[in-house]
Amino acid sequence: MTAGPLTLISAADLPPARRQALDDETIRTAGQIVRNVQTGGEAALRQHAERLGDLQPGQPLVIGKAELNEALSQIDSETRALMERVAERIRAFANAQLNSLSAFELPIPGGAATQCIDPVERAGCYAPGGRHPLPSSVLMTAITARVAGVKEVWVASPTPPPETLAAAAISRADGLLAVGGAQAIAALAFGAGVPACDVIVGPGNRFVTAAKYLVSDRVGIDMLAGPSELVVLADESADASMIAADLLAQAEHDPDARVILVATSRSAIDAVNEHLAAQLEALPTAPVARQALSNGLAVLAGDMDEAVRVCDDIAPEHLELHVGSPQRIAARVKHFGALFVGPGAAVVLGDYGAGPNHTLPTGGTARQTGGLSVFNFLRVRTSLRIDDTAAAEEMFKDAERLARLEGLEAHARAAAIRRRTADEPPGA
């Protein structure tokens, strides 16, 4: 081991990627709450909200548009301008995503096959409260839903401070459910206090994640996200002080946050550990960051090829490239939630609204999915039109033959009835 917060290991000793895992007790607890709200509605929602400290007796469950706009008008002008600038960057990126999709009509024999793109009708956007309320998550989720064209957007966040209310107003949310945890997800899914939503998105604690899992057979969800993750890939050219600052920025999120340095140089690892120790001394969130760093790793790779393989094996939520040729390495890495190319592209810019969304896959799930986008709120649907059945005869024949190949005679006859001539017997 090397002296310092990060434990030194070789690439061969890298533990298996941590997949998303919900323990049985969390699922059981969340399941009881979800079922209570599903069957008991608003009364059950209020009971759990008051029991868990989201609300005081008599406080409203939902904060409406007028109150959100009032909160926006009362925050200081500098904070409002800050959030509106960030909102515009998020909006611009989401609009570019939306414009990358298009409807089309493809001619086929006898007609056309088409694709249309429509938003869901109603979205629920969860933003954590608790130790660190995250108005940035309101902006990231609700603005993206609005850009996608969602008609109704509801935010849920426990004990929201004025900044969270203001962010909801800037995002043009229809209202804010002042409730958190599994009870908020159940309310958004089944309709308690707010209308039932078609899609629920946003990060949260393990009970939020468990509740999203439990309602995912009823509503669309973005992902089952776990604690924050950062992998930094570095070579001997990297700035150790900057890397330490970025690792600490993720470590302060949560004691369970996962931070990993992958380096081709032992001296780079030692330098980062030295800067981590020094920066921790003056960090107000050091108690949380120290816990996260105690589970952190410094992986010494034999060369850049091995370092890239390690990063792909981890498939982290965030991947920073602090290397001499970042663009060249960016073309080689394949699995990540969000990629930050070069030392100037810090994760903190992704967290706070450079444009791309900060709601990202964790636990190795970046191998099969990406971060939150307008696509989470869209339905790509298809249609088929046949105007000339004679021109489509070959397709009908192929459908008939393939149906019989699979032993589905009614399917075959449904194709045959559209192509046979008047003197052909049924089922020919």
Automatic annotation (TrEMBL):
Cofactor(s) the protein requires to work: Zn(2+)
UniProt key word Transcription: no
Biological-process GO terms, alphabetical: L-histidine biosynthetic process
The keyword Oxidoreductase appears for this protein: yes
Residue ranges of coiled coil: none
A cellular component annotation (GO) from this entry: cytosol
GO molecular function annotations of the record: histidinol dehydrogenase activity; metal ion binding; NAD binding
SUPFAM superfamilies xrefs: ALDH-like
Pfam families tied to this protein: Histidinol_dh
Keywords of the record: Metal-binding, Oxidoreductase, Zinc
PANTHER family in the cross-refs: HISTIDINE BIOSYNTHESIS TRIFUNCTIONAL PROTEIN (PTHR21256:SF2), HISTIDINOL DEHYDROGENASE HDH (PTHR21256)
Family label: Belongs to the histidinol dehydrogenase family.
Listed NCBIfam families: hisD
Protein's name in the database: Histidinol dehydrogenase
Annotated source species: marine sediment metagenome
